[in-house]
Amino acid sequence: MKVRVFSSEQEATAACAAHIATEVRAKPELVLGLPSGRSPLNVYRELVALHAQGALDLSRAMSFNLDEFLGLPPDDASSFRAYMDRHLFQHVNLLPERIHFLDGSAPEAESECARYDSAVEKAGGLDVAMLGIGPNGHIAFNEPGDALVATCHRALLSRETRQGLAAFFGNDATRVPLAALTMGMAALMQARQVLLLAFGASKAAAVTAMLHGPVSPQCPASFLQLHRDVVLWLDSAAASGLEQR
C-alpha cells in the first residue's frame, strides 16, 4: 500500500481529487466506485470545484455507488442517492444514464443485489474504487464478522456503524436503518486501483490494523493488504498510530 499523510484533511482531499482528475484525463471512460458518509465529502467538493474550473470532464465516465440503506427509496432525503445528488451529481457532467445505484426500496433485496453485480461485471469492473473506513475496519458496508461476503448483499449494520451515521438522521442513531445493501468484497478487491480515505483520531486504530494487523474478516479493510494498487490518503491524526510503530 502507498501511504500518503497530509497535515490536514483538506490537503489530503484536494490531493485525492486531483489524482482522480488525472485518472479521468488518462481514461475518460473511467469506471468509478463511489462511497458516501463523512470521509468523501471534501473530495466531492474538490471534484465539483475542478469541474467548475474546466479541469474535470466526467461526461464519458461511469459511477457505481458502493451501498444504500435498505428500505429507503432514492428520493428519501436520508438516502445515499440523495446524498450523492446533493454533493456531486447535480454539480458535474456525469450523465444520468451512466450513474448506477443500488435501490434500497427494491421489493427483493437478493434480486437487486444480483442485478447490481451483473451491472458492475458488464461495465468491466471498477477502475478506481474510493473507500472510507469505519472505526471497526469496515469498508463499504462489509462489517467485521467470522467471514466476509464476496458478492453484493444485504448487510446488518453494527451499532458502531449506525452511531457513526447518526448525523445523517438528525443525530439520532435509532433512526439509522438496521441494514443496507452493499457491494461485496470481490468487486472492491478486483478494482484496478483503490483509494482509501481516513481522517481523524477515531480512525487511527482501524488504519493501523488495516496496514499492520493480520488479514482477517474481523477487520475487512485488512484484505486490502492483498490488493495490487492501494493508495491511502490520511491526515496526521488518522496516521498517528503508524508513527508510534
From TrEMBL:
GO process annotations (BP): carbohydrate metabolic process; glucosamine catabolic process; N-acetylglucosamine catabolic process; N-acetylneuraminate catabolic process
GO cellular component: cytoplasm
Record PROSITE patterns: GLC_GALNAC_ISOMERASE
GO molecular function, one term: glucosamine-6-phosphate deaminase activity
Metal-binding listed as a keyword: no
Annotated keywords: Hydrolase
Top-level lineage group: Bacteria
Keyword Hydrolase: yes
Enzyme class: hydrolase
Domain (Glucosamine/galactosamine-6-phosphate isomerase): residue spans on this chain: 10-233
Entry EC number(s): 3.5.99.6
PANTHER family, sorted: GLUCOSAMINE-6-PHOSPHATE ISOMERASE
Name this polypeptide is given: Glucosamine-6-phosphate deaminase
Organism in which the protein naturally occurs: Stigmatella aurantiaca
